[in-house]
Structures are given as structure tokens and as C-alpha cells.
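Much of what follows relies on a compact textual record of a protein's fold. With that in mind, consider the following protein and its fold in C-alpha cell form.
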Amino acid sequence: MCIRDRQSTWGIKNQMDSTLKLAFFGAGYVGATSALVMAAHHPTHHFVVLDTNEALLSQWNRGEPPFHEPSVSSLLASGLSSNVTFSSDANSVLPDIDIIFLCVNTPTDPVTGNLDTTNLEQAVETILSTFQSISMTKNVLIVEKSTVPVGTAAKLGKRISSFAFENPNNKDYFAMMSNPEFLAQGRAIACLTNPDRVVIGPTHDEPSRRGAAILARLYAKWVPEDKIITTDAFCSELGKLSANCFLAQRISSINAMSAICERVGADAFQISKIVGADKRIGSDYLQPSYAFGGSCLKKDVQCLVYLARSLGLEEVAAYWNSVLTMNDYQRNRFVAAIKERVPLEEATLTIVGLSYKKDTDDIRDSPAIDVCSALLDSSANLRIFDNAARKLSFPSTNYKYCSDLYEALQDSHALIILNDYDDLLKIDFESVYKTMKKPPHIFDGRNALDHFHLSNLGFRVHCVGKPFFNRRLEYC
């Protein structure tokens, strides 16, 4: 049965060809960017982003994105002037909505390591309470975009079914399904505009399966058909977790090789090039660094570890947990290299980068924070340069934030690069060398610089996955 035929028996009537109203629960990173990109491709539909945080909504409505992400500002300006609004009034908005996307935060439970779906469940209860007193005359799709434990869509679907049983006038008017986000911060708009895939996972009831066809048609406006994967909710949810775990695994794998490279005098980037040339492997996420971070990779690996343990698969849990163990080891190894080469007590160190990666201001689970904390614990004085990231308070007082990198490097003993900003390549290191304490050290945690050039200038350079070398290119 074609999509058009399927939607005629259960669905959004003929509005797919005219006007739909779509709501996104959560005005954060996922909800806002997803709404803005979808709105840009469906100018005749109306989009509402819902949240309870009035301050956050005010920023959006003023045309001021509350986070740093390329291309969001221009999309926001276009959306606000046409078909996108931000609101906290769910009760008045929801009765007119055709499709509801759940984009709320699902943080890690600090006790179990599993993902906490409390916010998601509360969003569903808000939806159901709104429709409780309404005799529904149209179908509503509820779409789970948040990253969740496997089985969450089925669990929420049961709650919706119980609601329908208690409210027979609204029976069979809801459909629950999974449609996870696959965003990379710093490239979110590109990921949404030209996705590698869109995954749609209906639950096993007929309304959900028919609703999945409607959702696929919505994406088909700009996503090629062969990139839209329709599966089931269990595969959709587990597929999202698996994707992030595989990315984390690749980073930990090349970082493990980087430790060997430093011992034997090899270059991890050459190893990455050799390995990545194999078409079965590819080169993405094979760049050695001092650690991975962010709000997704670690928590998704932790969720998979919890899942494996809950299923009695201890060996599987240990395997995935080793990805996190290697990440911690790599970060600690980088800190140890700094301590080994620079007497930290009363030393002045210039830190470049506090967010977990470039092109974002997100400091959640940033390994840079752990590095800074470890250096401060060793009585070092830090000058932190990151004009995008939110300024974090550390327990120590031996640090300050600098808005000028050259000023931050004045009389510094070492430059420690924790983010590979493009502007690093524009630095006049000949001038910097003259202003730093001698011998000046550079610890490049992202391998962003020309190390041979810096070494020839007189810097002592340590980079991840390459031998430490000094001015004469001698291995130490």
C-alpha cells in the first residue's frame, strides 16, 4: 500500500498537501534545531516549540539562540517571520496539533547509569491531560526523538492505550513511534538538512504503523527515499544507542593505538590513514585526541552497559565499559604528560578550549573540565581562553578567563590545546615564542598545529599519538 493510500485510512486527512500543525516538546538543542529545519522545508505548515522555561523561550522569541551553533540564527530569523513560534502554553496549543515530537532531556541516572525518562513521561502526561476533556475528531502522532532506553516507545504506547481505554471517545486516535535524532553538535543544521539516514520506528499496533508512513512522507519533502529507514521501535531505539557507541568505540580504539605509537616512535595519524584507507573501515572518527566528551557519547555507552547487565550479558557490558575506561585513561595520560614535563607548582598554563569540541559552547561532560581540574589540583595557575563556551566556576581560585589569546600566553610556561579552533592556525607563533617563559611548551590535545614548524621555532611540543620532540626534533 502506498503512503497516500495508507494515510487515507488513518492519518492526517488531506492536510499533508496543505497545512499541518506540529509541536516540539523541548526548546533545547534537539527540539529547536529540528523544528527550524523542518519548518524551512515545509513553509505552509505551522510549528510550535513548547517549553516550561520562560527565560529560554524569551531568548528564542527575541531571535537570540541560547546556544552557539552555526546557521541557527539565520534559520531562526526566517522561521520567526513565517511559521515558527515558541510557547509555554501547552494547554492552548496542543488541541490543534497534528504531530507532537518529544525532544526533552533524558539524563543519565547517577545510580544505575541508565537513561532517566522522567521528563519524557511527564511530557506524555501533559499531552494526555490536555486531551482528556476533548472529544477528538482527528489523529495525533506522538513521536519520540529523545535518546531513550530500548522499550521506551512501547512503554509510552501502553500508557497511551490505557488513556484511550479510560477515555473511549479518544480511542485509536493516538499513534506512538520512535524517530531518534542523529545530530553532531557544531554540524546540527547540516545533519538535519542532509542526514545520513532518518529512522522511523513504529510500535506494533496498526495506528503506529500507519502513522509511520505519514512521518516518512513528511521527511520525504527533502530527504531521499533511500535514506528513510522504517523499522520498528525497538530497532530504532537500539540503533540510536548503537550508533553513538560505535563512534565512541572508534575514538577509543585510535586513542589506544596512539599510546602504542608514542612508545614505539610511530605516528598515530599515519596509522589512522592506513587503517582508514580500508573501505570496510573508513576514516571518520579515527583522529587521535586527548579524549572524547559531550552530552551524548558517554551517556549512551553507559545506557548500553546498563542494558547489557540487566540482560545478564556481563561480558558484553564489560566490553562496552572498556570504551569509557580507555577514554578516561587517555585523558589522564595527557595530564600526566603535562605534569612530567612542566613543574606545575606556581606554573602558568594557557588553556585553549573549555567546550567539549569546536563550534559549540556546550561544556557538558567536556574532558577539558577534567584536565583543568587536575591541573588546578596540582597548584598550577590557569588562563582559560574560550570565547564561545559558558564560563565555569572551579573550586580553586588559581584561574582566570581571558578574551585575548596573546594576552593569555604572555609569560606562560605552556600552551595546552583542548579544542581545535580554526583560528589557532592564524596565531603568530614567532611572536608568541618571544613572550612565553623558556623553554615554552605546547601540549596539543587535538593535533591542530604544525608541530615540526613549532619545534623549529624552539617550542617543546607534545602531541597525542606522536613522539615528543624538542627543537632539534630529537625524541625524548
Summary: The chain has a mean pLDDT of 90. The chain has 17 helices and 14 strands.
